[in-house]
Amino acid sequence: MARKRKGIPIDGWLAIDKPLGIGSTQVVSAVRRITGAAKVGHGGTLDPLASGILPIALGEATKTVAYVMDGAKTYRFQVRWGEATSTDDKEGVVTETHPVRPSTEQILAALPDFVGDIEQVPPAYSAIKVDGERAYDLARAGEAVELKARIVRIKALRLLGQPDTDHADFEVECGKGTYVRSLGRDLAHALGTVGHISVLRRVACGPFNETNAIPLDIFREVGQGPALRSHLLPVETALDDIPALALTEAEARRLHSGQALSLSRLELPVCRQALIPDQVVRAMDGERLVALARIDSGVVRSVRVMNLHHESLGEDDVDHSRAQG
């Protein structure tokens, strides 16, 4: 007999505004303690030296984490000119200095070369695996780490300001796999100097942003019982870019039980122009997310079935003995 998972069944997303000084796994642990939720995960790692939006998945939302990880992200960051570090951020030791400080005109002229699909070498201190080992573990052990260049997509890169000659502030909209630390390092090189990231903040991660986020310290105070409901976002929030497929209640039951559905025989109207072969869709029964499904040769098959629990939480749903931030 399978062991029952401990904790409260809570389904949905939280957009936590992570403070400096703690890592993503620590935020996950804090949310688990505060809510008593049975299952918690995160949708995109943030280092302790970075602040900002950390999407937290609860319950069935953990099945949609990949769609957040693959989504677009927006960061605001500051480059410190003239100092290169071992980690490409202020945590590392200074490895090189340079006297050149770029002008506003020079910075603006360099930015277009960093927009679009660009080649980027990840920092040595990164979670990328090299022969089965994390690059940052090898780097910390004093081993030389050589990582291969990869193509990443930069949608936009803007200069926000220059507090002084040593620093410049930027905002970048980027795709999956982009390292802002590498971007700052490479931009400095293109400007004839060296540099590292001195400030880093994620202001958006897919559909999660500063407008629907709550700072972790405030969530520690209000994230219990009915108060949680006002901050809990629906599971399908992570699936905004995925087309919806409307089903009847009977069709939803069949798909949920593992049966395939013929696309041509669905009772509700289907906009076939919006669908492409092998596409993933949100199978919906009214406002209820039934499953993530794939359309294959005119047949709809479930990929991830959703077993959503109650939409609202009452005061009695929280075990307050566990809800200690």
What's a quick, concise take on this entry?
Helices cover 18% and strands 34% of the residues. The protein is of the alpha+beta class. The protein has 3 domains: 12-71 and 207-237, 2-Layer Sandwich (Pseudouridine synthase), CATH 3.30.2350; 73-202, Pseudouridine synthase (2-Layer Sandwich), CATH 3.30.2350; 242-305, PUA domain (Archaeosine Trna-guanine Transglycosylase, Chain: A, domain 4), CATH 2.30.130.
Can you give a write-up of this model?
With 325 residues, the chain is of the alpha+beta class. It has 3 domains: 12-71 and 207-237, Pseudouridine synthase, CATH 3.30.2350; 73-202, Pseudouridine synthase; 242-305, Archaeosine Trna-guanine Transglycosylase, Chain: A, domain 4 (Roll), CATH 2.30.130.10. The chain contains 8 helices and 19 strands. Strands 1, 2, 3, 4, 7, 10, 11, 12, 13 and 14 form a 10-stranded mixed β-sheet that branches. The chain has a 5-stranded mixed β-sheet with strand order 15-17-18-19-16, with helices on one face. A hairpin with a 2-residue loop joins β8 (129-130) and β9. It is globular and about 70 Å long. The two termini are 33 Å apart. Mean pLDDT is 86; it is low at 310-325.
